[in-house]
Specification:
About 75% of the residues lie in helices and about 0% in strands. With about 170 residues, the protein is mostly helical. It is built from eight helices and no strands. α2 runs parallel beside α5, α3 runs parallel beside α6 and α5 runs antiparallel to α6. It starts with a helix and ends with a helix. The longest helix has about 35 residues.
């Protein structure tokens, strides 16, 4: 792949005035952030991923990025670590409101960690069991033309063909 191919894919000609480019970027950023901070919102996605754990095509269309779910493990693990450190350092809070808040935050972190871990394990298992299918999906994701622009390279034409074949199935 040429050096300029990656930026051209992410920043096509006229990207600054393309509403589709801005809306898609903001949506992806918002979903990744939500997956990292409030994974609980994506319980339905987690259930869908578990139901279709042997179908990489369904898993690849995960709402929120996979990186968002991994970030959820890290962020909520750090949050749980901070709560534990505060409990060890300062002792458990005495007031009922503080105890309730601590319990709520602990439950929030544990639930987010559990959901992020389930998604992480299902995706990792699928990638290990079906590497050829995932290689094809990764190729399409990397090379498919984005934001409605036409394909310009051989890889982009091939990725578009694979994308059309996958949508027919």
């Amino acid at each position: 792949m040429r050096l300029g191919a990656r930026p051209r894919g992410e920043f096509p000609r006229g990207w600054w005035r393309s509403a589709r480019w801005w809306i898609t970027g903001i949506r992806e950023l918002a979903l990744s952030t939500m997956a990292a901070v409030a994974t609980v919102v994506f319980v339905g996605e987690m259930i869908r991923v578990v139901r279709h754990r042997d179908e990489p095509l369904v898993i690849s269309r995960l709402l929120g990025t996979f990186e968002g779910y991994v970030a959820s493990l890290l962020v909520n693990g750090a949050g749980l670590g901070v709560l534990v450190a505060m409990a060890i350092e300062d002792g458990l809070p005495a007031s009922p409101g503080a105890v309730g808040l601590t319990a709520l935050l602990t439950a929030w972190c544990l639930l987010n960690i559990a959901l992020g871990a389930v998604v992480f394990v299902v995706v990792a298992r699928s990638r290990i069991q079906q590497p050829m299918m995932w290689a094809e999906l990764d190729f399409v994701e990397q090379h498919a033309p984005k934001y409605g622009r036409p394909p310009e390279t051989i890889e982009e034409y091939r990725a578009q063909q694979l994308q059309e074949q996958a949508s027919e199935v």
